[in-house]
Amino acid sequence: MRLLKSFGRFWYEFIIGDDWKIAAAVIVALGLTFLLMRTTSLSDHVLAALGGVSVALAFAVSLAIDVRSGDQS
Amino acid sequence: MQAQCVGRRVFRLGANRRGDLVLRQLQFAVAIRGPHHRDIAPDAVESDGAVRPKAFDLPLAFQLHAELGEERDSRVQVVNDDGDVVHPLACEGRGRGRPASALLAIGPGSSLGRIELPRSQDYGGQRWRAAGRDSSPTCVKVVTTEKVNMCRRTEVSPEIWGVVIATFAACVVEMVEATTIVMAMGFTRGWRSALVGTAAALGILALVTAVAGYALTTWLPEAALQLVIGTLLLIFGLQWLRKAILRSSGRKAVHDENAIYRDEVEAAQAAGTSSEGGLDMFAFMVSFKGVFLEGMEVVFIVITFGLNAHDIPAAALAAAAAVVVVLIAALAVRRPLSMINENLLKYGVALMLSSFGTYWAVEGIGIFRDGRASIEWPGNDLAIPVLIVVWFVLSRVYVWALRPRPAEHAATADHGRKARST
Fold first, then answer.
1. What is the spatial distance between Cα B296 and Cα B290, in angstroms, rounded to a whole number?
2. What residues of chain A, 7 to 66, have a C-beta less than 8 Å from chain B?
3. For B224, phi and psi rounded to 5 degrees?
4. Which spans in B130-270 are helix H?
C-alpha cells in the first residue's frame, strides 16, 4: 500500500507538479473545446482557434489566482 | 517513355477523412504474389470494392522502391509504355509524417485496394513505385492518400526542427540541473558512488523510454495519442511558462545553480556515512534521484515529441547531443554550469512545449467526434510557429502586468526593513 501511494505521489508530482491550477486550467479549456465541438457545427479552423483561445484564457485565470493568493512556489 | 497523369480518376481521401485512415493493420483481402511482396509485409491490401477478378489473377509483385523525390504535390504518373509501372509522387496535404496510405488501382475504373504503410518506417524523401511485373496492359495506380514525409529527404519539416530544438534545449536545462547535483556529490563524497548512481539512473531511463515508446506506439490510436500527449505537454509547458513569467516579473527568485550547488554540498558534508558494497549510499542515492527525476522529463519530451512527429530518432539524437554538450562543458569548467542562462532556456522551452501542446491537444479532441478525425488547425503545421509567437506575446503581456509597481516595491522594501529592525 505504501509503495502504491509513493508511486501515485511520484506521478502526481511529475504531471501535476507544484501548481494543480495549471492542470485544471488545461482540462477546463479542452473540455470547453470538446463541448463546442459537440454542440455546434463550427468549422475545424474556428474550433481550433477557439480551443487555443480557451487555453490561453484558462492559463491567464490560473496565473491571476496564483498571484492574488500569493502562491508563487 | 511517356509520362501521363492519371490522377483525376483515382479516388483520393481528403484531409478531412484522415480519421478514417488511422493506423490499422488491415487483413489481407487479396493475396499479393511475387517475391517482393515482403516489402509491404507489415501492411495490408484491402479490397476497395469494384475490383475485377481478373485483376487479382495477375502475377503482380508490388515493389515499393524508394527513390529520391523531387516533385511535390504531384499526381500519379504512368512512366512506361506498358502502363504497369506507376510512380506516385503525391506529397499533398500536411507533411506530418503520418502513416502513409496508398490506394492501388488496377485497370480503368477499378481499384485493388489500399496499402497502409508502416508508421515506423522513414519515408523521408522517398518516392514510391508500385510495379506490376506482368506485361499485361493493366495499369497500376498508386495514390498516397495520406500526408507523409515522402519527398522530404532533402527538406526537414519545420515541425521536425521544432522537435529537435525543443528537445535539445529541454535536455540541456535538465542536464545542467542533474550535473550540479552529481558534481556536488562527486567533489564532496567521491566520484565512484556518484557516477554509479548516475549510470544506474541513465540505464533505467533508457529502459523506460524503450518500454513507454513501444507501448504508446502499439496500443494507442493516433488521435488519442495526440490528445494525451498534447495535454501532458501543455501542462508541462504551461507550468514552465508560469515559472518563467513569475521570474521575469520579479515575483519569484531566479533559478541559481551556484546556490543549489552550495546547498547540495552542505547536505553532503552534513550527512553521515553509510556504505554498501563499497558504495557511499548517500552519494549514490542523491545522484540517482537527481539524474532520474531530471531525466524523466527529458524522456517524456523525447517520447512525446518523437511520436507525434513520427521521428523518435531525431528527438533522441537531439537529447543525446545535449547530454554530450553539457558533459563536455562540465568536464571543461569543473564547476556548476551557472554560466548557462538556464532561466532563458527554460523560458524558450516553455514556449515550445506550450505551443506544441496546444496544437496537439486541440487537434486530438477530434477523437470524440464521428469519424475520429483530428481537428484541423488553420494553416496546418504553420499554426505551430504562429502559436509560438502568440504564447511569447502573451507571456510578455503577463510579465508586464505582473511586474510589481513602484508603490508595491516601496511597501515590500519598507516591510523588509521593519522586519530586520525587529
1. 10
2. 14-19, 22-23, 25-27, 30, 33-34, 37-38, 44-45, 47-49, 51-52, 55-56, 59-60, 62-63, 66
3. -65, -40
4. 158-189, 191-219, 222-248, 257-270
Q: Of B239, B296, B365, which has the smallest distance from its Cβ to A22's Cβ?
A: B239
CA distance A69 to chain B (A): 13
The Cβ of residue B337 has, within 10 Å, a number of other Cβ atoms equal to: 21
Specify the higher pLDDT residue, A39 or B3: A39
Is the same domain home to B139 and B198?
no
B242: closest CA of chain A, how far (Å): 7
CB contacts, 8 Å: B246 with chain A: 66, 72
Cross-chain CB nearest to B232 (options A15, A62, A66): A15
Give B388: exposed, middle or buried? Use CB within 10 Å, 0-12, 13-18, 19+: buried
- The domain of B69 spans 1-155
Q: Which of A38, A41, A63, A71 best probes binding to B when mutated, by most B CB atoms within 10 angstroms?
A: A63
Q: State how many domains chain B has.
A: 2
Residue B16 sits at the chain A interface (C-beta within 8 Å):
yes
Query: Do B78 and B200 belong together in one domain?
Result: no
Identify which of B52, B60, B51, B54 has the alpha carbon closest to the alpha carbon of residue B31: B60
Helix (H, G, I), strand (E, B) or coil at B257: helix
Q: What is the pLDDT of residues A30-61, one digit of tens each?
A: 999 999 999 998 999 999 999 999 999 999 99
Whether residues A56 and B366 touch (CB distance < 8 A) is answered with no
- Its pTM stands at 0.61
Helix (H) or strand (E) holding B274: none
User: Are residues B144 and B173 both part of a single domain?
Assistant: no
Q: What is the mean pLDDT of residues B13-17?
A: 31
pLDDT at B78: 35
ipTM above 0.90, yes or no: yes
- State the Cα–Cα distance between residues B130 and B112, nearest whole angstrom: 12
Do residues B16 and B142 share a domain?
A: yes
Is B97 within a domain? yes
Among the listed residues B172, B176, B170, the one whose alpha carbon sits nearest the alpha carbon of residue B260: B176
Question: CA–CA separation, B110 vs B53, rounded Å?
Answer: 10
What pLDDT digit, counting tens, does each position of B58-104 carry?
Answer: 333 333 333 333 333 333 333 333 333 333 433 333 333 333 444 44
Judge whether B56 lies within some domain.
yes
| Separation of alpha carbons B164 and B108, rounded Å | 45
Residue B1: its H or E element: none
pLDDT recorded at residue B362 = 93
